[in-house]
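Q: I have 360 residues here and want to know how they pack in 3D. Can you give me a structure?
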Amino acid sequence: MSLGRIELVNFRIFGTGLFTPEAAGTTVITGPNGTGKTSVLEAFVYLGTGRSFRGAPREAMVRTGEDRAIVRAELDNGGRPTLVEAEIVTAGRSRTQVNRKVAHGRQELVTAAPCTIFSPEDLVIISGGPKGRRDLLDDTLGLLDPDGARAADETDRVLRQRAALLRQSGGRVSPDVATTLDVWDQRLVDAGTTLVAARERLVEALGDFVGPAYGRLAGAGSRALVGQRYQRSWDGDLLEALRAQRADDLRRGVNTVGPHRDDLLLEIEGREARTHASQGEQRCLALALRIGVHQLVRERTSVVPTLLLDDVFSELDPARSRALVAELPPGQSILPTAVPLPEGISVAHLVHIDELGRAS
């Protein structure tokens, strides 16, 4: 799969913009900070995930003074064209279509516009809370495990419905509330058990890729031992855990146990990376995670995601920049940068931001 072109209308600072990368090799977007380079990546990632990788609310992606933005991409899947279009609105419900049909669910989006993104914000995956790490796993399931991806969507839906019921109950357990909670608990067990099993399989599989990638990126013959372990938020049976926590859930009006509270624990030399690794180590590990995901998807499926690397050269020293380029797998990659390219790096296509057709 490769991105043929992407069109932006009223997205971020763009009135209109058109970007056409090379189908294979690395396309580099140059230009000063603040001119919209990262917004091109953000628009593409939105098509594949339904959210901003920068953590921005949808209304922030709509150009100031407008009520909606349009993102339209044409992709090639082994000679089969795919059209993905998103309408992002400041109020109401946004929607995404694949080949003119409304897309439903995580898997449909991620397989229509597959991509792997690394950005400076990825440091939060290592140093921040569990949500970013869970999102990384669930986005990857969309490319590798259809059952796991469907379970992720169903788990999200059930958790929203269960939380709404908890809030509406006002902390009181009527017979109707108890009966309905029984139903949502069982649905959460069904979907959540499938999701967690899929996440655990994925974490185990990533072990073959993340550690070696980290070693090469860290350089200087690094043999640092990298570990990853999935941590559930409950012990034993999930249904029993839900029942044990029901009184507390009702009192607080939130779901206190389930896959949405789980975490991916990452370690370097047996020390938790979130709290004990240096910022340089965390950055290398975040990049190794993304490269590991990319390599795993390439090995296990016929899908070759587009690799997106947001301004990585400003975050890495020259040695690690060269190591990164050496790690880039065959296929399409897009790399915006505000700093000069390190020596010895060749690219398939170079685009200056002014060539994107941004309206002033």
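Q: Anything worth noting?
A: The longest strand covers residues 2-11. The first helix runs from residue 37 to 49.
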